[in-house]
Amino acid sequence: MSTSAVSGTSERSGASAGAPGSGEMSVRTAFAGMRRVADVVFRAGCPDCRARFELGAGALRLAIGATSERTFYSFTCPECGVCVRKPAGERIVELLTGGGVRTLRLHSTL
Asked: What is the rounded distance in angstroms from the CA atom of residue 35 to the CA atom of residue 15?
């Protein structure tokens, strides 16, 4: 994966940001063509009322424990109000963190 530096230099300053070989680009160039960022939604289901729904990243919480058995995500069912807690494997953790879900790291006090 390659990365590019994004320069905060304005175009009015006459800087050559974005010039071939400069290694930098202006913010305007970096985001050219971008219209808006779509909100990430996750499909979920409630084991109590069996409702199926979509939740935004803000409605979910991810807790990462010392082991996979202690790693889970949780949310409140919008239909019945029950707090749901489900295990989160590596792929789920990757999807949730990539989608902007707030994460809590659990520490062991042994």
From this structure: 26
* Mean per-residue pLDDT of the chain: 79
User: Which residues have a Cβ under 8 Å from the Cβ of 78 and sit 6 or more positions away?
Assistant: 51, 53, 55, 59
17 burial via Cβ count (<10 Å: 0-12, 13-18, 19+): buried
Contact 82, 76 (CB under 8 A): yes
Tokens 């499909």 sit on residue: 43
Distance CA 69, CA 22 (A): 48
The confidence score (pLDDT) of residue 17 equals 44
Using alpha carbons, select from 46, 42, 54 the residue that is nearest to residue 82: 46
User: 33, exposed or middle or buried, with CB in 10 Å at 0-12, 13-18, 19+?
Assistant: exposed
